[in-house]
Structures
1.
Amino acid sequence: MAKESKKNKKAADYPQIAKTPTGITGLDEITGGGIPTGRPTLICGEAGCGKTLVSLEFIVRGAIEFNEPGVFMAFEEKAEELAMNVGSLGFNLEQLQKDKKLKIDYVHIDRSEIEETGEYDLDGLFIRLGYAIDTIGAKRVVLDTIENLFAGLSNQGILRAELRRLFQWLKEKGVTAIITGERGEGPSLTRQGLEEYVSDCVILLDHRVINQISTRRLRIVKYRGSVHGTNEYPFLIDEDGISVLPVTSLRLEKEVSSERVSSGIPSLDKMLGGKGFFKGGSVLVSGTAGTGKTSIAACFANEICNQKQRCLYFAFEESPRQIIRNMHSISMDLQKHVDNGLLQFMASRPTLHGLEQHLVAMHKLIKRFKPQAVVLDPITNLITVGSVSEVKAMLIRLIDFLQEEQITVMFTALTLNTVVTEQTDEGVSSLVDAWILVRDIEFNGERNRGMYIMKSRGMKHSNQVREFIITDRGIDLVEVYLGPDGVLTGSAREAQKLQEQTGEVLRSHAISVKDREVLRKRKVLEAKIAGLQSEFESAEEELNKIYIEEELVKKVAEGNRQEMLKLRRGDQGGNDRKVKSNENKRI
Amino acid sequence: MKTKEYKYELRLYIAGKTAKSQLALANLNKYCEEYLEGEYKIEVIDLLIKPQLAEGDQIFAVPTLVRKVPEPIRKVIGDLSNEEKVLVGLNIRPANKK
């Protein structure tokens, strides 16, 4: 993370507080590396908010993951009880104790057995703790819950002085300690004011029930000498222990990809600049009930899996089997992807837990499954467990997280017909990168689905309304007809299509008639031309004939004249030759 | 001597020879001589020498006086300066007698 690298840079320049990683998912990120090494940390909270578990996980993770043995001094529960309580989390305390990585020391205080007279001190506790630390070389210590001393002993003056000494002593020992304390009445963090003694790091756990849904939260109240997240972070206790999520990233410095991901509907891709969504982008599909939002989402999931990539499908309305069955009807086989491990369904009722916990659960699953795409179907149902602003905040964080991981996400949301503006209930439309709206177009006595792309950041997208058809072979988009009465869809579109086809036939027929007419005209004209030509030829011939006749006449006349001359002169020979040559020339 | 069963078996846990522990031991000896003559055994355990014993008797404060026998185990913590409280604590003199 960018935050950490920045911190490292700083650490190189100035000496900083050494930190001990707790090993608890997310807590180390909020605290920037863990709790202060060699100092006591106070964890306080109400009963049942997970104090003991947090501190025990700190010890166990330390022993297993960081090879730092730990001492757990329990004032409330016996070692066997503790072991049983965390057995469900996969922590084997007995084995760890045998391996000398963990020591659980149960301090039993029963007021009925104890009588106090005069001065005393808690050296016994010190010695016990010191002995436990020394036998296993512990680096981590937990005192859970030291306030029980106050219940067992009446001399508060001594106790307070001794506690102060104890924390000092722990610091001298150089062990990283967690002290748990019960949340007190009023503004104080703990019932006995332990925060006065432990002032380096205070973590507050909280367990709140809002609208009958409880959410555990964690907040770092103070952390001396270190930057830390100040928000309340929800945390989850499940089979892997505790996970805390630093879910609000404050920056908008995410990597972006210009890679494209197909939506699984070729004609929709065409509307989106021909290639589909951006990888790592967020897509919102909203529409009224029954417009095929789930089908679009399933189509997208199917496409991702066809590309041999993983997809995680969070279903808040239908069970996985139901979705698979329903998608069979549009010839989409999701079951094979589930079998191949490419598709994973995560179906849960929104009311199962609070919003934050949903987010935590999603985070965990996404981290584990590492999908390339995530589908949330539908987000509308989340509104039942939180207010609009809460849902929005949660979705912002989810989108943030997914963008960081370069995961494409598709949300579906239900819009209500009564809403005038095209606004989703969750108000997330401004957050997403692409928003596809599917709506009913009621016309001509039938209902059809129309699809628009309301927005698609960073790409050329179609502004056309397309009719969205779900057929046996899948989803397709067809162009709607814009007739004089408005947008035509469904059977009206088909009728219009037929009408246009008829027109086409008529027109082509008309054209062929015209063509023949032209041909005929041409033939007539050509015939006329031929007649004129022959006329011309005959005229020419006539003219030529006259001309030749004239010539002949002329020639004959000349011949006659010469003859006459010859006859008249009576001489022959020379002149005779001359006439011949003249004749030759003429011809 | 070890085989002998005493009516009262007492253990005093101390941490080093501090003023408090000395005072507690002196007080204890005084009360025992006074009320339990010949019926008691006192074992003094210095936790600085044997820290591993602290866990067994659930010691967290010193000095602590533990009555092992008779059952049930009872504890008195502090320097035992209040005679009344020690006797009640050890159930040597019944509380209602006060």
2.
Amino acid sequence: MVTDENAIQADASLPEKVPFWLDPQKRAIVYQIGVLCMFGLLAYYLISNTLINLEKQAIATGFSFLNKESSFEIGETVIPYSAASTYGRALVVGALNTLKVSFIGIVITLILGTILGVSRLSSNWLVSKIAAIYIEVMQDIPILLQLFFWYAIFYESLPSPRQALNPVHGLFFCNRGVIFAVPETHPAHQYILLALVIGCIGVYFFRRWAKKRQDATGQALPVFRISIGTIICLPLITWLVFGAPIKMDVPELTGFNFKGGMTLSPEFIALLLGLVLYTAAFVAEVVRAGIQSVSKGQREAAMSIALKPTQVLNLVILPQALRVILPPLTSQMLNLTKNSSLAVAIGFPDFVSVANTTINQTGQSIEGVALIMAVYLIFSLSTSAFMNWYNKKVKLVER
Amino acid sequence: MEAYVQKTPLEKLKPPVTHVGVIGWVRTNLFDGWFNSLLTLLTLYFLWEVVPPLVRWAFIDSVWNTTGAVCRDADGACWSIITTNLRFILFGFYPYDQQWRPLIAILILCGLLFYSRDRNHWNKYFGYGWIIGLVVMGFLMRGGLFGLPGVETTQWGGLPLTLLLSIFGLTAAYPLGVILALGRQSRMRAIKVLCVVYIELIRGVPLISLLFMGSIIFPLFLPEGITINQILRAQVAIILFTAAYIAEVVRGGLQAMARGQYEAAEAIGLNYFLTMRLIILPQALKIVIPPTVSILISAFKDTSLVVIIALWDLLKTTQSTLSNPEWMGFSREAYIFVAILYFLGCFSMANYSRRLEKELSTEDH
């Protein structure tokens, strides 16, 4: 700070030596040593207490329990898992479940939140007011309460599998969850996926090339249409090449439960619904603020230099609005991921829930809580590292 | 040919009836172009489908003061679960004949909060009033003096617990957050690093992990023989959590301060402590009042998480009522009631924050 340097310069010009307790720099060193000592003492006190307590209760420390057999079942798994698997694998299953629900949740939240945010600014009074009411109400009800509510709706209001609601062919609602038909497994699927990936990579390089070409020659290509076309057509052609398999795996009621199709458990749906509906309200506010932050003059100026409406949006409005929107949007996405830890309250086996079971079974509470914190820290620190990189990239370059 | 000259004043024409009044408003706001018209019609259809059945369920067909058995035959909502169990939901296991005490405590709190709305009332004496009010509330809840029978904290529950956790959580977290924010802005490397690590660590993990830490690990930290009751441990977790968020908000305020403010303070010979107390913090904290209120709102909502570590807050008493066989299956009504309570709390705070924002922004111009 300027003031400090001034003080030091003044010191240097003075003939007599300043006593060390009046020198801000030396004083600062003393303060810091003091604080560090206090911190160290506190840490030492807590750790020594903990060690004594652990010894008294005969709890082993360390992460060796991760290799032991878990002997509990997990309802939903992304990777193969059984009660004979290790605790380590159980925790990985939990982490993957957290990632799954967060990822799907984030995608739906972004769509719903954007729609709500735009509706809030709509010139249509009715739509705008309904969006406003939704945003206000959802923001003011705790997420946990919403999770309980949706979960209760599922197991109380929906019928048993035998009387499952069947609004369209192949879709069932019952208190065991939502069961719907999925395409039967076919070798074509992996090739379709491959085609999609190739399409995306191709589009990426095509866009770069098109931008270079535009910078060099000034000619613009219909980049958007070509990109969308490639991404849709490539998998479609692959699908046709394989003879267009359309056979569906339709769920059927056998005994007390459904067989076939895909089942989403009530826990998963309640969690997803709660997270999405809650976070979308916050995202809507972020989107609204972002759009409002771009002044009207920008649009008018863009139109006056004869840009097309899509160009106005893509080249002028969105880049400016996104700069405002993205940082708070990221923190909302992180909030959603962190709130997914409330799954433990409704019994969805996310990371916290599995870690909690592990703690209860092994008594390794410190390790368990440390693992929970570490996993969420990794999520949020990697996201903020990415955001810092991105912010630097889109930062307004001022003269 | 004769030039046409208008000799008499023309009759004043009214604007067309389609552009003013109700019709004009409807046209500009609801049927402005085909897209908006379509949107309006779709929305109206949606409302028509949703609102009347909802009203019928919630009011017309609902039952209000019956037993659970009667409820099962009713078509509409069973609000009896609320009316019958209201006192348990609100006050938990607090002794039944003493429940007027938490009620009065809550009323005092509401009164104080209501009076604090006007910023003209914020002065030293009102601060003392708050302290006295909090002491009286604590005394009412705890009892044990002046002939009031004592009530252990383990029996506290319901709404008073929720309010207690959020009010004390915020009052204790606020100074801690300010200190952390100042530490983060500090020039002393060691202090800055400590504060940054703390803030980022806490903000990176979910509250539930801190609550677990409070309820499972915290007892291990203490020397043998010393135990701290569970409400206090949850309270500490909430305080530590909220403080990190407040620190970030306050940091925003500190960063918004012009450099000249610091320099001017130094120029008149104020030391660091006085600079902060007299010049920087009063301005910085004023700027961040609105975001601080939103932290208060989320802290209030977050207290509901203590249900996971089995404290008897509002949500837990509701769930306990629902596990009673007589009232099993009426979760919707019960949760809607709790949601309304939370909504009223949060909405009034949010409203207040918006009003404050308006007041503060006009002052600058």
3.
Amino acid sequence: MKPRAWSSVLLLTPAGLLLAAFFIAPIGQFLQQGFLDREGGFTLSHALRLREAGTYADVMWTSLTISFWVTVFSILSGYPAAYVLANADRRGKGFWALFILLPFWSSFLVRTFAWIVILGRQGPVNAALLAAGISDRPQELLYSWGAVIIGMTNVLVPFAILTMVGVMERIDKTLMTAAGTLGARPVQAFFRIYLPLSMPGVTAAALLVFITALGFFMAPALLGSARETMITQLIIQQVSDLVNWHFAAILCLLLLAASLILFAVFDRLVGVSALSGTASLETGRQARSGANHAAYAISAAIGDALAAVAEMLGLSPPRTAGLALRTRIWAMFVVLFLVAPLLLLVPVSFTGNTYLSWPPVNPGLRWYSQVLTSPAWLSAAARSFIVALATAAVTVAIAVPAAFAFLRLSGRSASAAFALLISPLLVPRMVIAVSLFYVFAQLGLVGTATGLVIGHAIIALPYVFIAVIAVLKTYDRRLDQAAASLGASPLRTARHVTLPVISAGIISAALFAFIISLDELNIALFAAGGLQSTLPKMMWDEATLQFSPLLAAASTLVLAIMSAVVLLAARLRSSV
Amino acid sequence: MKTKGKLTRRSLLVAGSAGLSALAMPAIIRAQTKRKIVVRDLGIGSSFMDAYGRPFTEATGIEVQPVTGANDPFGQIKQMVQTRTYTWDMSIVSRQIANQLAADGAGYLEPLNIDAAPGWKALPDMFRSPVYAGNDVVATVLGYRTDTVKTPPKSWADFFDTKKIPGRRAMRRSPVDTLEQALLADGVSGDKLFPLDFDRGFRKLDAVRKDIGVWWTSGAQSTQLLQSGEVDMCPTWNGRAQAAIKSGAPVAIMWNQSLWQSEGWVILKGGPNADLCREFIKFALAPERQAVFAAATGYGPTIPDAVSKMDPAVAKTLPTHPDNRAGAILVDVDFWTQTREVATERFNRWVVG
């Protein structure tokens, strides 16, 4: 037992060191300011301000409800898409993966801006409503709860899908056939066998989406009315507008507390232990905790109920051999929703107009030539790709051993390790960036590519960690034991057995890191002083200053290049 | 399964080594041999480099690297000076930020000491301080659609009168500007505006709350609202409304009771290139240079002479043109420095509730 514990500690060390130096220390310093007065003495005055103005509790509540609904919609719409992606044959997989990943290759900022045009008074939705005679005047679709939910869900569904796919791909399809042989109707088999087996993916996705949603500020600011104000908007206002870091720290603590409470509730009801090794399949132990057992019973009951409803509605269940047409149609709708902003951006990028609007007029290549002849854009693109590759490499190298170690832990130490590794998720990215500046300044990393990689790695780590755990969870540990019993050293086992089997999952985790880095704005803005321009930084400048079709052209270019790379990779993979 | 595993492992290795070699690249270190300054500018197209950066390099051989920073770089400048990490050497900031940076602690700005320069002498007192040299005037104005607004608004009172001028309205999501507009609409005269009477201002805002369809947060958003016709009327910065007009949208500007603020040059305290920055500021404080900048951005020059160096048609669109400046009111930035926090909290409560 002892050497095992030691090796767990060893595997967690890189992640621990990175987080301690570049997250916990700077954030701790930042949060501490919540209890300091101007002279550095202890005070509770900032904290008491929370109570005086009821606004903050209201805004926190709004943030929670918005995040909740975004999570519900992300899981509901993401599940069938993930199912189709996981169960398609090779060619189908390439096709679906391309479309599901497509939105990732255009900046999240740009997609949010696209919704402003889509839902606007003069936008295509209103034009269609008018043309169809459904309404006689433009509807006010923007600046509402619905617009915020649509914009946020649109950004987060792909994350949910990627997280769930990792788990679904490893579900043994013969189990469904077996259920059928034993007399289960397809619907029943799906809800009692497939759904419970995919639950680790669903819970991981839900947690990820919820906590990420809590930190959103751009979408509610651009798409919502004043009622849809979220807590991060107020934190950012304190940091950048009012420069009251003391009170910003208090608001940050409020957000942290809310996230932690949520996390605990989630753990109780659904079981974060579903993510940890304690209830994993490979141990073969049936000793489930009471809460876990209850959760299992509930999920079975829900499964039966859902099956009954689905049958009444005549919904065709997903079949094991091939995919039911209706599931594919459903997934098609999800994909359509996902790419909606792109369907707008691509045509608009050819417009002759000087601002982003629908419909495009006097088509031409004006904006493309502007981007392609601009050294600033080209160097930003090169930098972004290099930084994203490095971030993916660093994050995976750190998250994979940490995930292995985590799955060996149990109880308190497991929860602690989990909380540590996902903690960067709980702090708004802008606060991370502002706090990192001080550490970077001491190390001479301000305005360097290395600084960007470190900052991005901190932000991407939780996502990669959760994705890797979701994959490892379904990995059959007995393979390792078999290898060991045949005399393989742990290193050889990892190299020749474990890593090859989980490599698909690891690659999708790396993709996560790559995407997050490619789309990360705050580090470049606040921890790098804007000196090292990245693509999101260029897009941010363009979006906040011009709102010109140049944005659409730049993001269409990135989209085209990345799609080509993904297609090529898929081609290479399937041709050998 | 086996081939797939092998292949993906290989591609993983390739990706990994590419990433590692990128990491191993030396951090980009600012060249110390060349004379060069880094200037945080407003990032309005190429206006900064066209008007100041390139001509300055041609005249002196000193290189200029522009950086677009966050909107109000107060925190960033403070951080840079505190840690002596001079990512930027100098910056253009609003007068309010300059005053706040100068007054905070030991001060974060370098004294300019360019009293002998002709540009400094030509600068009106209201646009300069020992650490600040004004570059341009930004006016908060009312932009409105000429296709839907039949009666052109003449004052903030008109904007607040939803019966006289119906239509969808947007306002800035901030107590700054918004409260001034409410008080002017309520009949407070421009010279008695400051200190602002918050109670009265919020009462006036209550009356129009349901008519404000959108609360905008970024300048580009206000331009888009006017361009697309999402709203019929929207108070914004004059350059923002001008951008909508330039793009061909049927938009006009109400200049009466425009609210003036200036933006100008500051040098980060203790920076290694402070003297080069002084040279730059002396160079930039010239009517010819300011005329180029004003034409590109729509913001008015601080040196009065600059207007005469411009195309009269363009000069007419600037806040500092005699036709437009008649009803202008200079914002008391120090009042806002003291009250902004309290006002923002109250405003947040009001706007959310």
